[in-house]
Automatic annotation (TrEMBL):
Organism expressing this protein natively: Caldanaerobacter subterraneus
Keywords for this protein: Cell membrane, Membrane, Transmembrane, Transmembrane helix
Protein name: Oligosaccharide flippase family protein
Keyword Heme attributed: no
GO cellular component: plasma membrane
């Protein structure tokens, strides 16, 4: 399979990501005019709680589904789905009961005051997240990129519509975002089931089969918990040292940066099955992984510099109460950039099944982020959280790359990426502490031009490929 095949596959998975990004770009300014930063902050805490719950309830069985998918004949893959789904639903029920019992105390801890029904909504949202996760996996593992993209678009559209409707006609609190999120999951789940009905037909499952998938997946749970801690320390620190309003501004910045996170999601959904398939076909074809790394590095750094260049213009679209988010966003750019690039460099750990390294890497990165947030958040608030988190993802990338190269040497070009990281960090520093729009535009565009120069050979390869295809 040549480059055209992989470009087509990437496009099919990414088109939904881009459309979702457009929807998010349009909807976020509207929502900021309807919901104040403090309520936005409460919705971020709700999302964070869902994150830690899903780290536990899956028991790693979503990873088991990916691992065993190609080992099962097509007609038996719905058995595998239910083997993995039933344990997750069981744990979700236990977690939901605990949440309902301690609901009032948790509500005060997270949202600063008790909210009736929020823990019931949490329980419903948790079930939806479990079903939606496997809904996406059934599509992704079959490489049905356009259906996967349709699900993404439906999810984003339903979230936007129902959030706005709730805010306009019922309440302008964070319940609107929670309700919109749940309706987005519901709509996406219905679309996925419609296209893959055969997967959702329940069959009797043997306990021995469930034990097998749990045994494989359970070791992933500590890694997921530490990874959750790594990605949530910023909001935890802001809750401890700052205010819900700061969390709201931070979350709004994340929403705008999510345009790049969506590229990350689209690439990851495409990359994981392709990487495994390529390795199984020819484990010695290391050039393929090096080329993929260079291509995604070019895309991510180029896009990052453009966002940094025009961030002040972009954030003018938000309500005035959210304008300060423009100076929080710059270092958050490093999150999707370094994570996405590391997905191409971490392959050695996955191929050699040394997955315990994921726990070590996440733990070390989380420790770095904790120390950074502890030092910077009391001084700089949300900007400090963004700086710490951004550099923590650089550490995350470095550890993934170094360890993976020891296990399965590809020979990635680390010099180019090092230059790009230093350059984009400098531009982000300007964007965080200098409010001169012209200076930010010049710095961002200069970084963009330097990136195109560094990766000029890769650009020439893209051009040749497009000409051949034409």
């Amino acid at each position: 399979m040549g480059s055209k095949y992989y470009l087509k596959a990437f496009f099919s998975f990414s088109i939904g990501t881009w459309l979702r990004g457009i929807i998010s770009f349009i909807s976020t300014p509207i929502i900021t005019y309807l919901i104040i930063p403090a309520e936005f902050g409460r919705s971020a805490m709700f999302t964070m709680l869902i994150g830690i719950a899903t780290s536990v309830v899956f028991l790693g069985t979503d990873q088991s589904f990916v691992r065993y998918f190609y080992e099962y004949p097509e007609e038996e893959r719905n058995n595998l789905l239910w083997m993995c789904l039933l344990p997750s639903l069981s744990i979700a029920t236990i977690v939901s009961i605990i949440m309902l019992i301690f609901g009032s105390k948790l509500s005060i801890l997270l949202y600063d005051k008790p909210y009736p029904y929020i823990n019931l909504l949490f329980a419903l949202a948790l079930y939806l997240v479990v079903f939606q996760r496997f809904n996406q996996l059934t599509i992704r593992m079959q490489k049905k990129g356009f259906i996967f993209s349709l699900i993404e678009v439906v999810n984003a559209s339903a979230y936007t519509v129902f959030t706005i409707i709730y805010a306009l006609f019922i309440s302008r609190g964070f319940y609107a975002i929670v309700f919109g999120t749940m309706m987005g999951y519901t709509a996406a789940l219905l679309v996925g089931i419609f296209f893959e009905t055969k997967f959702w037909k329940f069959r009797k499952i043997k306990m021995s089969d469930i034990k097998k998938v749990v045994a494989y997946g359970l070791p992933f749970v500590p890694t997921f918990l530490v990874s959750w801690l790594f990605s949530s320390i910023d909001r935890i620190s802001l809750k401890q040292y700052s205010t819900l309003t700061e969390i709201g501004l931070y979350s709004a910045a994340f929403k705008i940066v999510s345009a790049m996170s969506l590229i990350q999601i689209g690439f990851t959904n495409f990359w994981i099955p392709v990487a495994y398939e390529r390795y199984e076909l020819n484990s010695e074809d290391r050039r393929f992984f090096k080329r993929a790394n260079e291509a995604i590095s070019l895309v991510m750094f180029s896009f990052g510099f453009l966002v940094l260049a025009f961030k002040d213009i972009i954030f003018l679209l938000l309500a005035k109460t959210y304008r300060e988010s423009a100076y929080i966003a710059p270092f958050l750019i490093l999150n999707p950039i370094m994570y996405t690039i590391s997905e191409t460099t971490v392959v050695g750990i996955n191929f050699k099944k040394k997955t315990y390294w994921h726990l070590v890497i996440a733990a070390f990165s989380a420790l770095f982020n904790y120390l950074g947030n502890t030092i910077l958040v009391p001084i700089y608030g949300a900007r400090g959280a963004a700086i710490s988190t951004g550099f923590a993802y650089v550490i995350f990338y470095l550890l993934r790359t170094m360890i993976s190269e020891k296990l399965y040497r590809v020979g990635f070009d680390k010099i180019k990426i090092t230059i790009e990281v230093i350059l984009i960090s400098f531009v982000a520093l300007i964007g965080t502490f200098d409010k001169t729009m012209v200076l930010n535009i010049i710095a961002g565009l200069l970084g963009f031009v330097i990136t195109l120069t560094i990766y000029r050979k890769k650009i020439s390869q893209f051009r040749e490929l497009i000409v051949k295809k034409g």
